[in-house]
Amino acid sequence: MDDSRQADAPRRIKSVQTASEILATIQRRSDPTFGDLCDELDASKGTVHTYLATLEDEGFVVKSDGHYRLGFRFVTMGETVRNETDLYRAGQLEVDKLAEQTSEYVHLTVSYRGKEVTMYESRGDNAIAMDYHLRMREAPQYLHCTSTGKAMLSHFNESRVRDIIDEQGLAEQTENTITDPEHLFRELEQIREQGYAINDEEELRGMRSIGAPIRGVDGDVSGAVSVTAPTSRLSGERFHTEIPELVMQAANIIEVNLETTVFERNR
Amino acid sequence: MDDSRQADAPRRIKSVQTASEILATIQRRSDPTFGDLCDELDASKGTVHTYLATLEDEGFVVKSDGHYRLGFRFVTMGETVRNETDLYRAGQLEVDKLAEQTSEYVHLTVSYRGKEVTMYESRGDNAIAMDYHLRMREAPQYLHCTSTGKAMLSHFNESRVRDIIDEQGLAEQTENTITDPEHLFRELEQIREQGYAINDEEELRGMRSIGAPIRGVDGDVSGAVSVTAPTSRLSGERFHTEIPELVMQAANIIEVNLETTVFERNR
DNA sequence: AGTACGCGTTTGGAATTCACAAACATAACG
DNA sequence: CGTTATGTTTGTGAATTCCAAACGCGTACT
Question: Which residues form the IclR-ED domain (chains A, B) (predicted)?
């Protein structure tokens, strides 16, 4: 037979990749049955069965009356990740405060592999529960169409932004989404100057948000905070002055907290 | 060589078990280096290396300056699990309310494999941030020494409780922890009668809590809520009447929400 | 009732992957 | 500059994985 391993491709454990794919599939299609998974997974029934049994043993998957779901082990492990993330420890209380001040949704996010992940979310009194917000935390989001994302991008160097565009594209989420790279670069420059980014129905129709970057000790961006609300509640002075001020203040306080957090950890 | 597979042991994927063990080790020892992992993992350096590279590719692990941590993928997957858990959807708002009413920590937990996992936590104004609470959500906890745990146990049938005791033991967390099975059974009966459970410094010195079970449509326990506070703030009337009332009310409302949630999902 | 069918589980055995060991880089010391 | 500590790559025997096919079981259909 041919030497199927690529000459200089580094070695990987194929079974782990397979398991990862199975988990991703379970996450994507919620509540799949055994059959659903077999269809989607080009592997024989027997193989899929053995993987699922193993993942169930390990707590990564739960089977209940024929349907598979991700197991509670992800809850505890996700919690560990958050608690070990400096930004979360430094920002959590401040995000709660900002949510109270504005009465709206506040998000704390980090960039990860060209997308962003929500580390914490706090809901002010006006913010009604929305399925959208739930789903948003279930998968990494694009950076080019959120206020936090653009706030972070504005402090990456140009080549890094270009790489991200190449890899992720500039998906048109709404008619306001920026889909032209040069347009994006111009806006990033403006964001850098004014210190905050706005998202004017670029991600979701009817929703605006304002985000500011959080820079770490070394000057690198380590995350961003944002306030999100329906267009009707976020316009005029409030949209262009008040909220941006509050968001930037919060970001600044988190930056300071972050320095002491990191300092204490390295002590 | 001998036929190493056990005659009637069901088949599993060994590589997935190995990967799971590596992840557990990273979680247990925070920030381990490559060397740390090799010591702890009886596998050759080369093997450990290949696994870590694979897990990093898949987003389950992050390497930064020589230290390994769990990756952000756990955050998004954990979020998916929570959002798909009926109890969380049904109970979240009610837990927030209870936290506001009492000004203390409120927990929403589910039982899982003889232990309990915190699905949601809300902090009232009096509740100061404590490392203890962070860590508590990072691993499943024992059922016999928490108010939520005992509340859930009180509605399991006896043989199930015995199985859990056999498997998990009755670890003595403080001098107040119940370590005698018969003592536990007597208390569970009392809990069943009065409708709520108390934890009087049985898990952690100086901390009391009050928990009530949440029963699902089919009568099975699907979780529990609790209020936790320092002994100084939880005594007398407040400990024996006021808070138990509030906790039981909250549990009851969540039960109702749960019915409609489940009903809507099955529609 | 009988039988065909769908669905999930188990099993034999060939093909592939895994995992050890040892060699190889690379960085960190004296 | 040699020596140790640490991390990465590679060759190869041994063990695992994975397909295909058979099996069990409950259900729908005749």
Answer: 73-260
